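User: Fold this; tokens only.

Assistant: Input:
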Amino acid sequence: MNTLLRNLLGLPLIASASAAAADSSGTETFGDYLVHYSALSTQLLNAEMARQYAIERSPKRGLLNISVQQVAADKTTTAVAASITGEASNLTGQKTAITIREIPDLYVSYIGLFDVVAPDTYTFTLTIKPEGSGQSFNLRFSKNFVAE
């Protein structure tokens, strides 16, 4: 799991985000690949982390964090690069494309930023193609954003 994702889900840098991210984070398995993901309001990031990753802290901005790992026969995992595209749609069906970028880290990881109008539920639909893989995978999950 990448450093940003670990920090988003753990206590070291943003303790308040761990509870908020719990219902919208997880891991999905696609054959020999694990995809770790989370979504939350950028307002929950601490100032240091936001500055480090050039992320605007705002209750009107959401953050999507993704990492892809390949699982070897011995069950060890290795982070891999991937092509990731996606969109977020709210309960009324309004869709927003998410521009996803790789972030510098010890691990290969990606973030995407999108507009949020809370309260609302956003459903994320992502297409993930790991580097070297002949196929793409579709990931879909939802996140409830609350007014802050």
